[in-house]
C-alpha cells in the first residue's frame, strides 16, 4: 500500500510538474513565512558547510561566489554602458 503525501507537505524536488502551480500557491508568502524560509536555508547551509568537524574551503567559496554574482548583477547596467563606449 503506497503512502499518499499531500502536495503541501512535499519538498520541491518531490513535486511533479503538473502539481507545481498548486504547490507554489500553497506556500506561505507572508513576511513571517519568507523570513522563516531564509532562516531555515541559513541554518541548513551553516550546519552542512560551516559547522562541521572536517571543514573545507567549499562553504566560504560558495558565499564568495554568491557575493561576486550578486555584485555583478547590481553593477551590470554600468558595466554594459562602459562596454558600449568607444575609446577613440
UniProtKB/TrEMBL annotation:
| Chain ranges passing through the membrane | 56-76
Membrane topology designation: Single-pass membrane protein
The source's superkingdom equals: Eukaryota
Q: Does the keyword Zinc apply?
A: no
Q: Which Pfam families match?
A: WRW
Q: Which UniProt keywords apply?
A: Acetylation, ATP synthesis, CF(0), Hydrogen ion transport, Ion transport, Membrane, Mitochondrion, Mitochondrion inner membrane, Phosphoprotein, Transmembrane, Transmembrane helix, Transport
InterPro entries, alphabetically?
F1F0-ATPsyn_F_prd
A cellular component term (GO) from this record? proton-transporting ATP synthase complex
**A Gene Ontology MF term for this entry?**
proton-transporting ATP synthase activity, rotational mechanism
- Which cell locations does it reside in? Mitochondrion inner membrane
GO biological process: one example: proton motive force-driven mitochondrial ATP synthesis
Is Ion transport found in the keyword set?
Answer: yes
Q: Which proteins does it associate with, and in what oligomeric form?
A: Component of the ATP synthase complex composed at least of ATP5F1A/subunit alpha, ATP5F1B/subunit beta, ATP5MC1/subunit c (homooctomer), MT-ATP6/subunit a, MT-ATP8/subunit 8, ATP5ME/subunit e, ATP5MF/subunit f, ATP5MG/subunit g, ATP5MK/subunit k, ATP5MJ/subunit j, ATP5F1C/subunit gamma, ATP5F1D/subunit delta, ATP5F1E/subunit epsilon, ATP5PF/subunit F6, ATP5PB/subunit b, ATP5PD/subunit d, ATP5PO/subunit OSCP.
PANTHER family given for it? ATP SYNTHASE F CHAIN, MITOCHONDRIAL-RELATED, ATP SYNTHASE SUBUNIT F, MITOCHONDRIAL
Described purpose of this protein according to its UniProt entry: Subunit f, of the mitochondrial membrane ATP synthase complex (F(1)F(0) ATP synthase or Complex V) that produces ATP from ADP in the presence of a proton gradient across the membrane which is generated by electron transport complexes of the respiratory chain. ATP synthase complex consist of a soluble F(1) head domain - the catalytic core - and a membrane F(1) domain - the membrane proton channel. These two domains are linked by a central stalk rotating inside the F(1) region and a stationary peripheral stalk.
Q: Which family does it belong to?
A: Belongs to the ATPase F chain family.
Protein name (database record): ATP synthase F(0) complex subunit f, mitochondrial
Q: Which organism is it from?
A: Carlito syrichta (Philippine tarsier)
Amino acid at each position: 500500500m503506497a503512502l499518499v503525501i499531500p502536495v503541501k507537505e512535499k519538498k520541491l524536488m518531490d513535486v511533479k510538474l503538473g502539481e507545481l502551480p498548486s504547490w507554489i500557491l500553497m506556500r506561505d508568502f507572508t513576511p513571517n513565512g519568507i523570513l522563516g524560509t531564509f532562516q531555515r536555508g541559513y541554518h541548513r547551509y551553516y550546519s552542512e558547510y560551516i559547522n562541521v568537524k572536517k571543514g573545507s574551503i567549499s562553504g566560504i567559496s560558495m558565499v564568495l561566489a554568491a557575493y561576486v554574482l550578486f555584485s555583478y548583477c547590481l553593477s551590470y547596467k554600468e558595466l554594459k554602458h562602459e562596454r558600449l563606449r568607444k575609446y577613440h
